[in-house]
Amino acid sequence: MRSPRRHPLLVPALLCAFAVLAARPIYAADGEGEGGQDAAALGLSAQVAQLYEDAALATQRYEAGRREADTRRVQVQRAEALLERERREIAVLHEDLGRIARAQYRSGGGMPLAAQIILADSPDDLMRGQHVFSQSQLTVDNAIDKSRRAESRLTADEQKAAAAWQDLERRSSELADLKKDIERKLEQARWQLQGQADASVAAGSCRGAVRLDQPSAAVTSAWVAPVESYQLSAGFGSGGARWARRHTGQDFAVPIGTPVRAVGAGRVVKVSCGGAFGIEVVVKHAGGYYTQYAHLAAVTVDQGDQVSPGRWIGQSGTTGNSSGPHLHFEVRVTPEMGSAVDPVPWLSARGVPVG
């Protein structure tokens, strides 16, 4: 039997190994696929990300359709005005026809030819009468023809106007239905994603990074806002029942599943899933500053990853001590809480106005 004294470094080495393992984030082992990714989490996160893109595209199409509809509505209204003018012109033509018919009757134009021959005083009177009759008849025929052409044009224009209105209403309805359907699917997928996140937090184990295909975006600045579209909610230093002292960051109100971006280049130094912040990521930047992204529904980076400005590092949620979907964003001088500075002027000083 060998003496344990022959391996004096064995115990310290094992203690160091355990310390390294304990410092790493805990990931769930169940259902993990290649690269440590959970298949269900990956599918749902990717679905939410894709639905965000689809919703943005549907909104663009809807807005473009709405602008086109406004343009066509103006055109149809102009056509309606022209139709009204045509109706008035036809009414005038009908009045002219009535006046011509009455004048012809008074002048004897409606008298049979035999009666005109009998009553004529001379051949000249008969010829003059016939000439007047021919002229009157020509005027009547021209007026009738003009009226018929106007009525035919009016009918065609009315049909075009009606078809234009129907097409306008149909396209607007289709675009609205498409937008509504995508938004419904997105809302359902958001809460499924949040359910997975809540389960991870309850178990105290992160599922690992969900590697999403981020759309190529031309980020040319060194610093960006943590989310693209947002409304500011609780600010730095504000009071509230949910915080022991004062609020230590800036909250960005965004829906669940919103892509969360690294505000600048750096390295991920922490990924965790427990406590008041729920699922959180901490990134170290040059100059000794750290940024924290909390209450996430999913993470797309692992501890040790290098990130660039605008790189997706997670999807927003409402995990941990959260009253609703939002991103809690902090700027710190250490990786741990208790060293936060106001993030709004910090971002503003780096060319990122927040408001």
Key phrases:
rod-shaped; 355 residues; disordered N terminus; 10-stranded antiparallel β-sheet; alpha+beta; 13% strand; single chain
Describe the fold and architecture.
The protein is α+β, with helices and mostly antiparallel strands. The chain is 50% helix and 13% strand. Strands 1, 2, 3, 4, 5, 6, 7, 8, 9 and 10 form a 10-stranded antiparallel beta sheet that branches. Helix 2 (39-106) packs antiparallel against helix 4 (123-203). 25% of the residues are buried. The model is unreliable at 1-36 (pLDDT under 50).
Produce a short descriptive summary:
The chain contains 5 helices and 10 strands; from the N terminus they run ααααββββββββββα.
Total number of strands: 10
Termini separation comes to 72 Å
Which of globular, elongated, flat, extended, rod-shaped describes the shape? rod-shaped
Low-confidence stretches: 1-36
